[in-house]
Specification:
Elements lengths: L7 H7 L1 H14 L6 H14 L3 E5 L2 H11 L7 E4 L6 H8 L3 E4 L11 H4 L7 E4 L11 H11 L2 E5 L7 E2 L2 E2 L6 E5 L13 E5 L2 H11 L3 E3 L2 E2 L10 H11 L2 H18 L14 E2 L5 E4 L3 H10 L29 H9 E4 L7 H12 L1
Parallel strand pairs: 2-3, 2-4, 4-5, 5-8
Antiparallel strand pairs: 1-9, 6-7, 6-12, 8-9, 10-11, 13-14
Length: 363
């Protein structure tokens, strides 16, 4: 038995004819950059998320950088985020010259602990980047209330959460802006790098479109110093096909998560903690256990792929040593990094495979 953490080939085979046709249509058109596929995808993503605007960019990291730049955030500013997330959530803050400020995470959901958020705000704070970790939204309405009291921008990092909901509202629809990654392993994944920014602010969207194309609205007339961050037509065409299946695939992940919850209920393994007001999409099914190394060895011996998310919290990363954080500053995030382990959870995973995985976990 060999079970991958994610089976992208199996997914491709279920929609092969549609994907192949979409690719050939782009090739036949000979339009590869800023074309009709990208523009159509922007409209479809905006409609899906319930926002007025969507701006396609080259990847999820660029989506954060461009949004921070469009909001005028830079040297001397602070931006609050979580230490338990992928590096890009804080790396992008530093890239624009601002300083990342961390807030520990909720011990149940591993999302930002909103009870600690307001205490981190200073006169230098300009924005908050809440992260919907592993595909479960946090309460962005509450973040927006805190932000409004301090005149701050809220940028949802929804890289792992397209289709997730909180009180029936989709990820990306509640902040001043939100960013998505379409990295191949995401629930909505391209066949290369791709990203998107959504917002209800038309002026912001206009600024973002300039920034992604060398700071110009009209070719060769540059109003700002910008970037080259354009989503190419091939990826847009692929994503348009896959978007039609996203809700179905997300539901498949939820069904498999429920099976795991039942199969592992009589163990000491801690399943993903849930907010009862959230509808997660299980980008990852992340267990927590004090015996992670032993469990990883058993899974590896049984042919089951697994992965640590994340081995080092951001405040302890060498790249951020200048910030002066130390071990013990964010104990919940640190403990999560010691215990968290992702196991396979995707729509193509069979019930038989889940029973085999559970049996190995139980030893």
């Amino acid at each position: 038995m060999s079970i991958p953490l994610l089976d992208l080939k199996a997914q491709y085979l279920t929609i092969k004819d549609e994907i192949d046709q979409a690719i050939h249509e782009v090739l036949d058109s000979s339009v590869y950059i800023l074309g009709p596929q990208m523009k159509a995808l922007e409209k479809e993503i905006a409609a899906y998320c319930g926002t007025e605007e969507a701006v396609a960019v080259a990847n999820g990291t660029d989506a954060l950088v461009l949004t921070l730049k469009a909001f005028g955030i830079g040297e001397g500013d602070e931006v609050i985020t979580t230490p338990f997330t992928f590096f890009a959530s804080a790396e992008t803050i530093a890239q624009v010259g601002a300083t990342p400020v961390f807030v520990d995470v909720n011990p149940v959901t591993l999302n930002m602990d909103l009870n600690q958020l307001e205490s981190k705000i200073t006169p230098q704070t300009k924005a908050i980047i809440p992260v919907h970790i592993f595909g479960q939204m946090l309460d962005v309405e509450r973040v927006m209330e805190i932000a409004a009291r301090h005149d701050l921008k809220v940028i949802e990092d929804a890289a792992q959460a397209i289709g997730a909901e909180y009180r029936g509202q989709k990820a990306g629809s509640l902040g001043h802006a939100a960013t998505f990654s379409f990295f191949p392993t995401k629930n909505l994944g391209a066949y290369g790098d791709a990203g998107m920014i959504v917002t209800n602010d038309k002026d912001l969207a206009s600024q973002l479109r300039m920034l992604r194309f060398h700071g110009c609205q009209t070719k060769y007339y540059h109003e700002k110093i910008g970037y080259n961050s354009r989503l190419d037509e091939m990826q847009a065409a692929i994503l348009r096909v896959k978007l039609r299946y996203l809700d179905q695939w997300n539901e498949g992940r939820r069904e498999r998560a429920k099976v795991y919850d039942q199969l592992l209920a009589d163990t000491k393994i801690q399943p993903p903690g849930l907010d009862p007001l959230a509808t997660p999409i299980y980008h990852l099914y992340v267990l927590r256990t004090e015996e992670r190394s032993t469990l990883m060895e058993r899974l590896k011996a049984g042919g089951v792929a697994n992965a640590i998310y994340y081995p080092v919290p951001l405040h302890l990363q060498r790249a951020f040593r200048n910030l002066g954080y130390k071990m013990g500053d964010f104990p919940v995030a640190e403990k999560a990094c010691e215990q968290a382990l992702a196991i396979p959870c995707y729509p193509e995973l069979s019930l038989e495979q889940q029973h085999e995985i559970a049996a190995i976990i139980k030893g």
